[in-house]
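Translate sequence into structure tokens.
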Amino acid sequence: MLSPNVTEKVTVFRGSTDKYGNPNKAVHGTVDGVFAWGGSRGNGARFTQSNDRREAAAINADFYVARGTDVRARDRLKRSNGEEYTVVGHALWDQCHPMDGFDFGWMVFNLESLNG
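Result follows.
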């Protein structure tokens, strides 16, 4: 199990999108997890310019939670400091070790920043 000394409580938003592709997310609950920066997908930081000439910075993060935690692909997560992230894909490492069956007790999700 994750130690309460290292976890952070985040709010999970879940829902569908409307016919224009706009998200209709409502609060689904809260979960405890650990953010890791620059983990499984390189250093995670990038800087881009959008078509309307505005600049944006984005970061990817990994979010570790206890196995069985109710987080899904396309959920939105909001930290207590107001930062928001979207869950990209399904859980990674949501299994026991294939060689010896050891249960690490963790699973990890890739996140993408929505903080523009």
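Note: The beta strands are 8-14, 26-37, 45-49, 55-66, 76-78, 84-92, 106-113.
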